[in-house]
Amino acid sequence: MAELSRSDRRWIDSVIREDEIERYLIDGKDFIDQELIWGELERQADPDASRIREIVAKSKELERLEPDETAALLNCRDPQLWDEMYAAGLEIKQHVYGRRIVTFAPLYISNYCVNNCAYCGFRRENTSIQRKCLSEEELRRETLALISKGHKRLIMVYGEHPMTGADFIADTLKTVYSVKEDAGEIRRANVNAAPFSIDDLRKLHEVGIGTYQVFQETYHPETYRRLHPQDTLKGHMRWRLYCMHRAMDAEVDDVGIGALFGLFDYRFEIMGLLLHTIDLERRFDGVGPHTISFPRLEPAVNTPYIEKPGYKIDDETFKRIVTVLRLSVPYTGLILTAREPAGVRREVIPVGVTQIDAGSNIGIGGYADGNIVGEKQQFMLSDTRSLDEVISELVDMGMITSFCTAGYRCGRTGHYFMDIAKEGKVHTLCMPNAILTFAEYLSDYASEETRRKGWELLSRELEQLPDAQLRERVGELLRKVRRGERDLYL
Ligand code: SAM
Ligand code: SF4
Fold first, then answer.
1. pLDDT tens figures, 151-190
2. Which ligand is nearest to the Cα of residue 109, counting in written order?
3. In whole angstroms, what is the distance from residue 365 CA to residue 384 CA?
4. Bridge-based pairing state of the strands 180-181 and 184-185
């Protein structure tokens, strides 16, 4: 695996299309304006309390912040103001999304990769890792194993390799959607993969990709160059920087961005995520990313870089990162993964997280064979609890687990979703659908304990729906779910 064949090289040379970068540049420049980022971080070095409170008030009006405002929040040093920001994060999240958490599972398809990212266990030169790409039959088995636990939503993950290009990914999406078991099926499959061309992204759109997710890793050009060797595909920073623009142009209008925290100064990365959001909104009629992810670096097999990362993020800083993101983009989904231990997840979910994975196994083939094998994993997971355990804890925290995929299947993506999210109305559609999908989970898959307390929570949430007509309609659908009907939504 360490050596590239001549045909691999030919393939690598054919991937990047400069014209699909240049068309998005302004005067030859990309949207990462380092002068602006450092300038704002310096100008807003010492924000006073009234400025912070003004900015928080703007977030509560569900307005996206400007770079100077986010920079001010990042530089706040007063613990009492941070407590106010944590509370505001929760308030905004409840207002836009309600008391629900969307839950999904990661499904790793292949760890073959032509790149050499310093921090990743899948990097080409890592000969300690066992390479594996799921066959169609193995993929069916993995999907069945996930369905049998109650999952409805996946994020499918791939290395970057000629074997796993867009056609292969399209085939795997078709396979996953075709697997059915009793009442169960995967209703939304998101993809985390390499940056693609517009033509390739159209292929993924045609087979019903959910969110297309690519993390920039770091927005800091010098760090990016250092960690992604320049003779690799991933070494081309701008090809990655504009993959979401290409996705929007290919009609994949739910896109997920992210930064890998620990590679560089977290304040710079948050400013980068904000500038990315602003550039997408500017070009695509107000539609920014559907989700933002903020993974922290985790140890990986035979990956010495991680033992001495330059910018390790402690737990308190991590909570602040999530809070500033929540306040900066009040209507964008925020994804917290099982890279984080259960205790950190408990602490951070309330400041504004909208999606988590649960019952996760990132070993390739790990769901069907039940083992987590370090040598097939990209990094080590921290929260290895089962889906039912996580759901049970969320119920204790007063939160409904949503497996809802209605928005995507009814065309409530991109512009439509952003509009209702910005108006703070997601919960009049999404909360009822969360209730209905949670009821399905409780009926079909939950342990006795989770089922008992889950139904109690459901009844309370039903009572709190905003109007009597809606309550009646959802109550009627709930009775149908209890009678065995499935996949009902508003
Ligand atoms: N190969 C594709 C790419 O690089 O975009 C997609 C799959 S990659 C397996 C998914 C993400 O995992 C990367 O974008 C990176 O942010 C994250 N990742 C890689 N190594 C990691 C580590 N050691 N700890 C935590 N996350 C890591
Ligand atoms: Fe390959 Fe992605 Fe890992 Fe980089 S992060 S080595 S591109 S799998």
1. 999 999 999 999 999 999 999 999 999 999 987 999 999 9
2. 1
3. 16
4. antiparallel
